[in-house]
Amino acid sequence: MADQLDILASGQIVPTSLHTEVQRSYLEYAMSVIVGRALPDVRDGLKPVHRRILYAMHELGLTPDRPYRKCARVVGDVLGKYHPHGDQAVYEALVRMVQTFSSRYPLLDGHGNFGSVDNDPPAAMRYTETRLSPISNEGMLTDISEALVDFSDNFDSSQQEPVVLPTQLPNLLLNGSSGIAVGMATNIPPHNMGEVIDGLVAMIDRPTLSDDELFRLIPGPDFPTGGEIIGTEGILDAYRTGRGSIPIRGICQFEEVHPGRGRQRRNAIIVTELPYQVNKAGWIEKIAQLVNAGRLEGIADIRDESDRDGMRVVIELKRDTPAHRVLQDLYRTTPLQTNFGVIMLALDNGQPRQMPLRDVMQAFLDFRETTLTRHYQHQLEKTEAKLHITEGLLTALNNLDAIIDILRNAADGTTAKQIFQQQFDLSERQSDAILAMPLRKLTGMERQGLENDFAELSQRRDDLTRLLSDRKELLKAMKKELKALKKRFNDPRRTRIQTDAERAEESQQVGDIIAETVEEATVVEFTQKGYVRRFSQKSYQRRQARLEVDTSAKLHEVDDDPVVQVEAALTTHEVLTLTRDGRAFTVAVEAVPANPRQGKGAPLVQLLPGSVPSAADAIVARLVLRDDLLEHDLILVTRKGKIKRAPLKEFTNLTGRGLTAIKVKDGDELAYVTLAEPGDDLVLGTTGGRLLRFPIDDDNLQVMGRAAQGPQGIRMGKQETLTGCVAVQSSKDCLLLVSAAGYAKRLPVEGLRVAKRGDIGTQSFQFSLKTDSLMALLPAVPKEAVTVFTSADRTAVIPIESVPRQGRTGESDRIVKPSKGETITQVIRVTVLDPDANNGAVSE
């Protein structure tokens, strides 16, 4: 104990709280990732790893006119001198700077296999070779020195490395950048050099240039893989605020192809360009999966005919299949159309900042003005030094006889230097230059050369002094430099931007295509095991006539996959599907297997994107988006009682990626979904038997954004969870309450007092057993029945009208009697098909 006190007293151990230490350490780690790894600098548009690669190659002399050098040599230099991280991280960064499909203006020139748009991996670094590209050598590393930019110590203080490169081009906009830091991310699209330089010149000429005029000069991003940007709304949002979503699609055309010998010519969709960062091989595989799953119809064959001359993917269509319809399905369900989420976040003065386009360009102009000033100042100092020496040499030549006499009679060089300084008013440097002057300088040609040098240096000094003293002249030189670089490296735009007029015309064409589609009335069935199928109305009626439902209320073994939801729909409708993780997806009704021979249909999860878990219980609710429902609100409730209200019309026309319907935290999940009309009340129930009723209005439950989490709906105890959510339209409605032990009752809604959201609710179910809990809260619809499932895989169908009607304090009756250790696990409404009814979503 005494030894420990001595150690504490000596200061070798500093006591600190765990909270403080973790907070400090994590903050240091976060700032290290943000500043030192993940985010680019707004000045040169580079992250530290890219800057170190370029500088190391500059030091190695790997200029465009020199032979290629092994990438392993470059990676080794970068690791040993500047970047103490993994070699694969450095090599991956190097590879991206070579790839023409990743960088709009590649900063490195590669020789060897550096991967492909099919996501083929590059060869190992011992095989590939690289060198600087002309644009990086001339536009980013020219005259790099401590006179132009600041340098700092490397990781072990053995080398100096530049803090920023003296780039003459706005690389952050030309090549873009992407990265994930701690708590923030950046995703900046590439742009066309000519357009960006035109914008910079316009900002130099007119500092008050309006945003609209600037955006006309820079109409949008220009991706290396081409493609087409849909509309300008997303571009304007990104440029004005620094954040936005830009829809991009591939370039397609229609052709007639000859499938093979003896076969008739068919229509085909030819894809020649894909959206930026879309893996071609993965996209083709996705199409094949959708075709095999029945979600994409009308496609007969897919062939990749791409070669070194360009991309060409042939999607051969079946006979009499409308090509425009298939193309719209490809846009909707595959990455042929995707969104580029713009986050223009970069380090500005060492601080991460989200910046609109104007701020990014102005930051570059300010930086370039600073580096030009430092460059011209450094050039002026060198010019004045040379001019000073030349002036001394000319003085010596003009007094040659006296100089020779002094040298002949001087005891040593030091004495001669002192005499020069005294007799001819020369400086020490001029005197040293005279002493070092070779005899050839005495010739006539050398004398003339010195006089010409003196005149040129004097003119150069005057020009540099004018540039440094007059900002207009400095900006004029900056414009001249930018225009010269544009003339040297500019190329035509690759990405086409669809105008608003063209977009409106396309929307009209799509509407005409949909209108031409034959609307067929159908019936969609969803089963307890997650299967979906559809039938014509006549086929459905014949099947129903053959089915016999056992309503004896006796539990029996589950020997089939019971239907839990039936919806009347048209083939032009979509099915909205919500999953436990809070995401929403849509599936076209026509994509659901029709009249399956074995009657099972297809798992609904297989019709959704591949990112959805394959388990059948991943799906919480299903709803056919009929026109008569689009003015309703969707109420979403999580297992822990978080509740959210969102307009149903926001969930129409979803892309294949779906969207986030409600933000769900770890340990929670979306549990219940229901539709609500204006004037409805909402009833929430807990496993403890408490019910809370409150109006669905802006005071209790405001309409929220799609990614919001929502407030707490009902206060629950530590051992309680939510057990149901029902929207009721009038006080005449009844609720069906079922417990885990098989007890149930019908409760009139008028017996529940109206409260506010977030209250504790009222006890509305009296338990006969202490271990019992409320398991289900459902609407008690007359002439309907419920299917009860137990933990022993047994089931029973109970007519709702057979359940006794009781008040809030009334006792319940046992509708089924589970065996010892068996409990009710699920209660589902057996919906009755009524094409004219407002069939809502059915959830567990």
Automatic annotation (TrEMBL):
It catalyses: ATP-dependent breakage, passage and rejoining of double-stranded DNA. The lineage of its organism: Bacteria, Bacillati, Cyanobacteriota, Cyanophyceae, Leptolyngbyales. The keyword Repressor does not apply. This is DNA topoisomerase (ATP-hydrolyzing). SUPFAM superfamilies: GyrA/ParC C-terminal domain-like, Type II DNA topoisomerase. Belongs to the type II topoisomerase GyrA/ParC subunit family. It is an enzyme of class 5 (isomerase). Keywords: Coiled coil, DNA-binding, Isomerase, Topoisomerase. Pfam families: DNA_gyraseA_C, DNA_topoisoIV.
